[in-house]
């Protein structure tokens, strides 16, 4: 029994479902006492500085613990020490009889004094320890009726499909096997098996009905906790006959009017999973040592079923949690990439999208090339979300944004202890993207020492985490991207040639914004609408001269630069205002004079842009005395690109 006395200057204490003794004293005949402000606690303290679920007092078979369920301060006081527990400290601490628990500080401090009443003074008739359990006893072996009943009970147990059915089956099986039992309770361990502060909680009680079969009791059924504590502490099956006399000081047994009780453990290896307790509440000495032998044999088989079903339940819970996490990550990623529709009606973009549609439902590796800010990741995500892998994860990693010594662990994972700081196993991005797509941005930045491992992953579909002794298969589609020339990197000896050919199975080139000037009005309008919506601002749009300047600018930062420019413009605009040239960045306005010098005549956007481009080509050639190599370098294009433009304008 756990007795809690509450000491405070001013408090409102409620004891839910249990008798109060005095003004500040509550008794609990249970192994877990929850304390907090919420009404579902066993001890309710209606104080503003008390959390809804502040702490739990957990009585185990050998020790009692206080477990902090909140970050709020909890201080354990004993004659020789003062221990603080909570989020930044130890989460639980062992306590002894007479210790105090301090909640809060100053005038709001609440002091809980804990008394642990030991009721285990029973004298038992028979004990069978787990370590001594061997073959079937001689009496049972020669009793075909008992063996038949055991077979039937275990067959019913094997048919259970979840943990609740297993527990119900155990209770009904005991009533079926023990004619003298009237009540059966199963208590299971609360918390992890490795936790020293776990308690055993009654999860189901069944009583014998008028027809002799198990049924649900009409009210609460007290449990002889002193007996099953002996089972747990001594790791043994216990029979106490005529318990109301033999266990004269065990208050829980006296309160339940139990004549005899039998308790056996459910175990797996060294761990006690729970306790089956069978009681007779009608006449003395109805449960016998032979009943104990039958129950030990039944429990040894029932333990395996209960352990397996509990493991399955935990795996299902973990699987549900992982499924929810994956759904959340997938939804977030789709919101970040998939929802951003690729905008573009220019010939260059139509050609790229046509190529993309041909490759989405294949397994080949795709290499997206293009300048910084041209939308390579958007094309990579389109490869994934337009494919049959769209229901799996799209995982992106910028290979230039992580140190070389950590990139291998990030991609392939690692085992605990494989290097300093590896305190636990970690799944790599290849494992996270299993069944989906892994996007490797800036793939040219992968160090040479790691390229061979990436090549094997691409060729064989096998990866080996850092520190692991074995490889395992993954089903991942790779989409890589780079703003460098991988051919040049191969020639310079900075990139493996075999990896280059393995990556460039199907290349896609993301065109620069100056190659798709027809898309600038569409992109600018889309960005204007998005940021106006985000800021809750009504805007008029772009003035004609402003749009002409935007289309004439070369955009070295490509779509990303345009996006940032429009975001800045929306912030500057007045409510309902239009974008005028004065609001544009200086680097964009500098082309305004060029437009005037070029003598641009009114016409379609393409016609006006062509006139400006032709003027710039002529002026640049004149500045460099017709040196085409220097002209191309100044304009930021290749010599072949310059020749192509000169031919198109007849120069």
Key words describing this protein structure:
651 residues, alpha+beta, Tumour Suppressor Smad4, Beta-Lactamase, Rossmann fold, 7-stranded antiparallel beta sheet, 6-stranded antiparallel beta sheet, 22 helices, 39% helix, elongated
What does this structure look like?
- This protein has 651 residues and is an alpha+beta fold.
- It folds into 4 domains: 2-116, Tumour Suppressor Smad4, CATH 2.60.200; 126-312, 2-Layer Sandwich (Beta-Lactamase); 340-511, 3-Layer(aba) Sandwich (Rossmann fold); 514-648, Helicase, Ruva Protein, domain 3, CATH 1.10.8.60.
- It is 39% helix and 21% strand.
- It contains 22 helices and 28 strands.
- It has a 7-stranded antiparallel beta sheet with strand order 13-17-18-19-14-15-16, sandwiched between helices.
- Strand 18 and strand 19 form a beta hairpin.
- Helix 2 runs antiparallel to helix 3 and helix 20 packs across helix 21 (628-635).
- The longest helix is centred in the middle third of the chain and has 50 residues, at 289-338.
- The protein is elongated and about 115 Å long.
- Residues 15-23 and 243-251 have low confidence and may be disordered.
Strand order of the largest sheet: 13-17-18-19-14-15-16
CATH class bucket of the largest domain: Alpha Beta
Number of helices: 22
**Backbone structural class:** alpha+beta
Distance between the termini: 100 Å
Give the tally of β-strands: 28
What fraction strand?
15-25%
Instruction: List low-confidence stretches.
Output: 15-23, 243-251
Shape: elongated
